[in-house]
Amino acid sequence: MKIKTQLRIFLIGVILVPVLAAFSLPVYHYLNRPERMLFDGYKQVRQLNDYPLSKRDISVFKQLLHTLPPNVEFMILADFGDINEILVNTIPEFQERKIINEDELFQFMNETSNSFFYQIVSPPLETVADIIFISRINRDYAHDKKNGFFERAVRNAMIFIAVFEIFCILLIISLSNTISRSITILNKNTQKIADGELDVKLEYEKNTKTDNEITSLTENLDKMRLTIKDNEERRTKFIMGISHDLRTPVAVIKGYTEAMIEGFYDTPEENKNSLAIISSKTEQLETMINTLINFVKLNQTDWLQQLKEQNIVPIFQEFAEGAVTTGGIFKRNVTADIKLTEEILLPFDKELVQRALENLFSNALRYTNENDSIEISAAEENNGNSNKNLVFKIKDSGIGIKEEDLEKIFDMFYRASSSRREEGMGIGLATVMTIIKAHGWQIGVNSEYGKGSEFVITIPLKLFQETV
Fold it and tell me: So where are the chain's domains?
């Protein structure tokens, strides 16, 4: 169970238990109110309807019953002098009596006064004035009632406190165990990462009952471990790639320089040719270093803050026109179909976008042969969510990409098995991916080995549609 859920249960319990306790008090009083305790007495009061009393007089007797505490016995008499008629009675000693002598009544009250409290009331009535209301309550019950209320209140309070304490203790223990166990696992796993054990998978509980925010953090740490491991491998490949690609021109420059110093060449013409080769390899080194520097700059985000909205349609149109001209020079059948006529304002860096497009086109030229076709297209397409995308495609009929290379062609310094014969550092497509992702766009590739490749750039136009 998640820690947040456990804390919510704890807070609900802290709030709900006192509320239920407070709600139980009026319920208790309701169940013990005089009206419920004297329900049978009300039934007997109905017998007064046979006596010449008004509705108001009957109401007076009912109000008297409202004021009586529970377990009160009472008797209603009609006063006829020495003889009193019993109209309503709940006192057991006179259950079978219909009339009672006044002296006998007072003598009985005197004899039982040690056990009962008596009260005599002669309520003012509209119809007659000779009705007497006598009530009594057991002295022990009255004493217990007086002291029992406090005792029950204390007992109920103690029960509530005990239940509440047990609830809080159990929940705190459960919460503490969850946090402690999760932190122990987290500490063990972070120590592994700190010790550089990137090849060992982190341990974490994948269980819906024990899973919580901390164990989820451990899961994220494991993903971070894999990312760090992947970055380490990329860094190693980066260093190896630079070393490999820079070694060749450096070795050539070094070889020709040593040959000239040792006087290996006898004629000025041979020395001139050697210097030309050295100059060519120096330019190659400069180009490779500049390519690396530009790639590093792309991974910084400062330039993203300076992007301004501009019309992207001319970029694709100019690129397509240039590609058709270049294709003719390299004897490729290049066709362009740019179905973008209206302005599309988007934030982008013009030079970087042009570089990405040129890199894709250079790849298409490199991996096609004479008379092969290259198709360039751009159009707006619905994305199925009532929004549109700008979709740019470069499709060629060249050698294609093997299936095992498709997932890695955008990796730094990676060159597919079909391109080993070509020169290059393996940075071109990595640069394209970096530029496209930095702008918040997407790029994908469809290819079948021996039949060609298709690179697709997808640009969401939601921002453009909202501003329009």
Answer: 1-195, 213-298, 305-467
